[in-house]
């Protein structure tokens, strides 16, 4: 997630892309390279004209890269345009996570556009993550937006947070990175596992949930 110094998650009509800086874009690409699946809310997929994840370039370590991860979109309405780049400009078929309450003709149109449409009993975080896990998709990179991240925070389902602070003050009505239901008390404490300051003043913050999978992968300071 990317935020201005005063907490805005979108700038003008360009959403988070209007905030992002070169260091943030490089981090965004590197996180996608390690992801099993990119999970995103339909609001972000629509506003930011999402497309499929680009294939990785061959390297000495990986001369024949595997297919890029799918994008999984959470939508109660299934109101996604079958002609959108999400369906037409992708190597790996996207996954649409929805429920039987979404109009059947919309679900069918997305299937016809090449998506795997998963009709779930509900769109609670446990159901979403369980559905992805049953497909072998355990490394879930959630790219927002605030409604989806808010649901994950409220369900205490966030293991790791990459937060980019961009050195601008925006004011205005833009919301914060997580919105929606209040998380259970006490607040979930997170451990700072790393931080990088880019030359332009962008701060890349890496927080992990103590005791979680990401916590075990990261270096702990010797005095901890
Ligand atoms: N700064 C950042 O890092 C960042 C990152 C991502 C997005 N953004 C910005 O955030 C804005 C979009 O915000 P948003 O809150 O609308 O985004 P969102 O979470 O991407 O989308 C909300 C929509 O997704 C579906 N949805 C998400 N979670 C759901 C759940 N648990 N249960 C049921 N449906 C769920 C619903 O779709 P339906 O309406 O189809 O039912 C809902 O209307 C854009 O301006 C975008 O640019 C900023």
From TrEMBL:
Matching Gene3D superfamilies: Dihydrofolate Reductase, subunit A
Superkingdom of the organism of origin: Bacteria
GO biological process terms held by the UniProt record: riboflavin biosynthetic process
The keyword Ribonucleoprotein is assigned to this record: no
UniProt entry tagged with the keyword NADP: yes
InterPro entries named in the record: DHFR-like_dom_sf (IPR024072), RibDG_C (IPR002734), Riboflavin_Biosynth_HTPR (IPR050765)
Span of domain Bacterial bifunctional deaminase-reductase C-terminal: 2-203
Pfam families: RibD_C
Region Disordered, residue ranges: 1-21, 49-68
This protein's name: 5-amino-6-(5-phosphoribosylamino)uracil reductase
Source species of the chain: Pseudonocardia ammonioxydans
Lineage, highest ranks first: Bacteria, Bacillati, Actinomycetota, Actinomycetes, Pseudonocardiales
